[in-house]
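A quick aside before the break. I want you to see a complete sequence-to-structure record at least once, exactly as it would be stored in a machine-readable document. Don't worry about memorizing anything.
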Amino acid sequence: MAGRRWLIVVILAASILHAIAIANSILPAQDGLKFIRIARQFQKDSWPSVVRESDQHPLYPSLVAVAEPVVAFFNGASPETWRIAAQIVAAIAAVAVLIPLYSLTKTLFSDRIAAIAVAIYALLPVHAEIGHDTLSDSLGLLFTMLSLRWGIAAIQTEKPLPTIA
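That is the input. The structure line, written in tokens, reads:
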């Protein structure tokens, strides 16, 4: 139980660090502009046509397109709103990756080691960088960690094949 408390503390600390980074960031990543353009098309055109015309995976831009009206409600409609929406989606994914990382490490080692691993990961510069940028890297990392965690769960719950007698 103490490990879960540490996980919550690390998640809150990582969220605060990402919020500070978003507030201090003024320019999106160069490749992030492509994702924002695709997200804007999601709001204007039909989704199947946007997916067909895009050369990127549509999950991250579609999440940005969904997040933009929420951010626009608080920030007003502007190009800055699109950047902030993209950064918020990336930051949420970067913080959410801590949960499967904790679970995976706890399964392999212990609560204490899992809490330490998550705390170290949350303080790494790469995690901070991809978590507030307008790129889909943090979302890809989240799904990679989820697949690793689900793979471990599948291996642990695997039942032996029945034998033919």
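Two observations worth writing down. The mean pLDDT is 87. The two ends are 45 Å apart (CA to CA). We'll return to this after the break.
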